[in-house]
């Protein structure tokens, strides 16, 4: 992606949208991390349920 050397200044509405999109992007990143952790915990729990139990007899 080629960057403009002298981009035009943002309008107020563009600035507001940029701030909103950056906030939304950060929220989505955090939400994805939570989902990944939840999936890992579920997989760990499922693996523990499938693991044969050792008998001490």
Task: Summarize the helices and strands and which ones pair or pack.
Layout: H1 12-50
Give helix % range.
55-70%
Count of DSSP E strands? 0
What's the SSE pattern? H
Distance between the termini: 67 Å
Tally of helical segments: 1
Radius of gyration, CA atoms, in whole angstroms: 24 Å
What is the overall pLDDT average? 91
Structural class: mainly alpha
**Spans of at least 5 consecutive residues with low confidence:** none
How would you sum up the major sheet? none
Form type: rod-shaped
- Share of β-strand residues: under 5%
List its salient traits.
57 residues; mainly alpha; single chain
Task: Explain this structure.
By secondary structure, the chain is mostly helical. The chain has one helix at 12-50. The protein is built from 1 helix and no strands. The longest helix is centred in the middle third of the chain and has 39 residues, at 12-50. The protein is rod-shaped. It starts with 11 loop residues before the first helix and ends in a 7-residue tail after the last helix. The model has no long low-confidence stretch (mean pLDDT 91).
């Amino acid at each position: 992606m080629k960057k403009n050397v002298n981009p035009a200044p943002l309008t107020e509405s563009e600035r507001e949208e940029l701030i909103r999109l950056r906030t939304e992007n950060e929220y989505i990143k955090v939400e994805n991390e939570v989902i990944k952790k939840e999936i890992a915990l579920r997989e760990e729990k499922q693996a523990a349920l499938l693991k044969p139990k050792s008998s001490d007899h």
